[in-house]
Design a protein that fits this description.
Pfam families: DUF1697. It comes from Cryobacterium melibiosiphilum. The protein is an alpha+beta fold. The protein folds into two domains: 82 residues, SP0830-like domains (Alpha-Beta Plaits); 83 residues, 2-Layer Sandwich (Alpha-Beta Plaits), CATH 3.30.70. The chain has six helices and eight strands; from the N terminus they run E-H-E-E-H-H-E-H-E-H-E-E-E-H. The strands form two sheets. Strands 2-3-1-4 form a four-stranded antiparallel β-sheet, sandwiched between helices. Strands 6-7-5-8 form a four-stranded antiparallel β-sheet. It is globular, with a radius of gyration of 16 Å.
Length: 190
């Protein structure tokens, strides 16, 4: 059974949309997903699903089903972005060489289809030269800022744009840890 990660947007942030991780995992288990586990409070759910789920992910059917499930259970709308283990590995492999280095604060901005990296990049606000750097990946934008100058970043302008509501952000340490956890759920990889 393929392994997936569901990235939930906007839960347990600033005292809003509070959902306990045990309740979140139980919701997934009750819906028939297996190997369910959560990672930190920001809404990362790892699970396995039958092979038909792979087709559903490509058609966004699995994301829609999980969003409906969460809305029914928790009575709040939650944006969900789902990536398979292989998609997640490709995202990490495509990152710039220095992404996640000690000199940078690095994040991955996961995009919900139909939002894509090229269109999003074209609409990004002007970033600060010498502080901010952006690169495109498969369904993701890699964003870094120089750690010593992080207070001068302009990425906060993106967070005020309407397209930001179709993204969820994970820091690079969390992103790479999620792949390691996905690998635990799916033992053999080419």
């Amino acid at each position: 059974m393929p392994a997936y990660v569901a990235l939930l947007r906007g839960i347990n942030v600033g005292g809003r949309n509070l959902i306990g991780m045990p309740a979140l995992a139980e919701c997934f288990r009750d819906a028939g997903y297996r190997g369910v586990r959560t990672y930190i409070q920001s809404g990362n759910v790892l699970f396995t699903a039958d092979a038909g789920a792979a087709d559903a992910v490509r058609g966004a059917g699995l994301e829609d089903a999980v969003e409906r499930m969460l809305t029914e259970r928790f009575e709040i709308p939650i944006l969900v972005i789902i990536r398979s283990r292989d998609e997640f590995a490709a995202i990490i492999a495509a990152a710039p060489a220095n992404h996640g280095s000690a000199e940078l604060r690095s994040d991955a901005y996961f995009l919900k289809a139909p939002l894509d990296a090229d269109a999003t990049f074209a609409d990004l606000p002007e970033l600060r030269e010498g502080v901010d750097s952006v690169a495109l990946g498969p369904g993701v934008i890699y964003f870094s800022r120089v750690a010593a100058l992080a207070g001068k970043t302009r990425i906060t302008r993106l967070m005020r744009m309407p397209m930001f509501t179709q993204m969820t952000v994970r820091n690079w340490r969390t992103t790479t840890k999620l792949l390691a956890l996905l690998d635990e759920n799916e033992p053999a990889h080419p």
